Amino acid sequence: MTLAEYIAARQRRVDRALDLCVPAETENPSIIHRAMRYSLFAGGKRVRPVLAIAAADAVCDQAEGVEEAACVLELIHTYSLIHDDLPALDNDDLRRGRPTCHKVFGEAIAILAGDALLTRAFEVLSKLERVDADRRIQLVRELATASGTVGGMIGGQVNDLEGEGKHPTAELLESIHRAKTGALLRASVRIGAIYAGASDRQLQALTRYGEHIGLAFQIVDDVLDVEQPSAALGKTAGKDAQQHKITFPAVYGIERSREMAEQERRNAHAALKPFGERGEWLRQLADFIVRRSA
Fold first, then answer.
1. Which residue among 62, 77, 147, 271 is least crowded, i.e. fewest CB within 10 A of its CB?
2. Distance spanning both ends of the chain, measured CA to CA
């Protein structure tokens, strides 16, 4: 099986789980469910849930139902994109190659759609049937921490907003992106591992892997925002520079940023040594994250 086939098969599992966990468009109030599904099924790569499933695959032969836990990562990620695109934040018109949620449904419904995806994620975790109560609590805690204000996604977004127009420094850059992007990517790997019953040693190794790919993902994202057109990215290119955001190219330049991403890729591989061949899909996913063109 190629990596493309592996990813596609897991994307299908995730999409089936997402379809089941989000109310149908016809369910009242239908407009909110249409808005949620509009953004959720807009063609995302499902990187976070695929990483969760791959982490579970590295821990055990079959973590039955792991896609149900993995899909909450896409719920949280999509909520963050809907809110990120709002006029009060990044004010963007394009996401995943189509008009953003607030452009189609209006700002009020877009805000509520993001809120609904956020709350649905925790409802899904609370109802998982194939893991015991202790592991459900661990999963809820993991997602809440990664999404929150202290070292989590929201905290990183705040730092990103407050950093606009400031002199770009390495310290400020790291404080933004280890939280804004890195926290949820690290949590993706940890959620898959926790679901599969990882040992402390396995969880520590996968946490290190998650930290490295989280940083690599953001470095590459920043570089692509400079180098690729909007059509390739599926979102408005050049927004970081327009809004004077603190990015890796702004601090280090393009070439050094690429070197840093490659070093994080190698570090991610090294973190997987305890898994031997079982870590192969995670290694290939690290390669994919660093070498992607969109």
1. 62
2. 23
116: Cβ–Cβ under 8 A, 6 or more apart, which residues?
Answer: 32, 36
Q: What is the pLDDT of residues 110-145, one digit of tens each?
A: 999 999 999 999 999 999 999 999 999 999 999 999
Q: In whole numbers, what is the pLDDT of the chain averaged over residues?
A: 92
| Bridge partner residues of 290 (DSSP) | none
Q: What domains are there in the chain, each with its CATH number?
A: 3-291 (1.10.600.10)
Residue in the structure block whose two tokens are 């877009």: 110
99: left (phi over 0), alpha (psi -120 to 50) or beta: beta
Full-model pTM:
0.92
Binned at pLDDT 50, 70 and 90, residue 175 comes out as confident
- Residue 17: its pLDDT value, please? 97
Mean pLDDT of 219-226: 90
Tokens matching residue 121: 């994620």
Write out the two tokens for 163. 């950093």
Q: Which of 292, 160, 293 is nearest to 213 (CA)?
A: 292
